[in-house]
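Treating backbone geometry as a discrete language has practical consequences that deserve illustration. Part of our work consisted of pairing the sequence of a single chain with a tokenised description of its backbone. We regard such an encoding as a compact summary of how the chain folds. The amino acid sequence and the backbone structure tokens for this protein are reproduced below.
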Amino acid sequence: MPLNYENVLNCPIPEVEQHLTRRDTMLYALGVGLGADPCDRDQLRFVYEQDLQALPTMAIVLGYPGPWHARPDTGITRSHTVHGEQAFTVHRPLPVEGTVIGRTRVTGVVDKGKDRGALVMTESEVSDRASGERICSLASTTFCRADGGFGGPAGPLKVPHRVPDTAPHRACDLPTLPQAALIYRLSGDYNPLHADPASAVKAGFKMPILHGRCTFGVAGHALLKTCCGYDPARLKSMEGRFSSPVYPGETIRTEMWLDGNVVTFRSTVPARGVTVLDNGRAEIL
């Protein structure tokens, strides 16, 4: 069954009510690698209940609607979907506990052509249930690798943020654990691509890959450490485009170019010489 353009574009994604606990906040931070040095006081504030704070990148798992695109009437081949792009803007400090409401809608579907896949764009608003105040805004693109050529529109496509061709001003290397994907999935993304070797091989990978959202979180950690002094209030927004998968256990290097309050960045896996997160842009207060 080919991708059904109308069904995907008009899919009624259910509203999500999420009961966030302090344990969830700590588990997310552990999943993206915080606490690698258990004596580092800067990292400890995100993984220990005393004076607990939320990582800014945790915004992307709040009110998460799950695999809504796996509905049979969408025609999307779930086993061949990967994360294409991710962005967030924080409007108020993220809570470490409480109840949040996530509302997600499809904003576009693009046909890249037969054998080139399709793109599905969504936007989400996350608010506090008690006050109704907006917490953060999210934008995401899913790359449906097996679903191009359904006869849909070829655009419009967002122009990617340009990365300079000069040497970066700063760089930060952060290792990931071999079991990183198994930890990170406990924050809500249970796609078997990240846990089951047979599912990964079926999707064309040699082994389970790290979640794109986890790679994004590692890059966010690098920005927080290098440009924000581990102050989460300073990382206002962040966006990037996934360009290659990361295998759990690899070290991710995030390169940064500073221009006032804007940081351009990209992340690579030096051991394989590949860029895994490109066209990155962050706003620092």
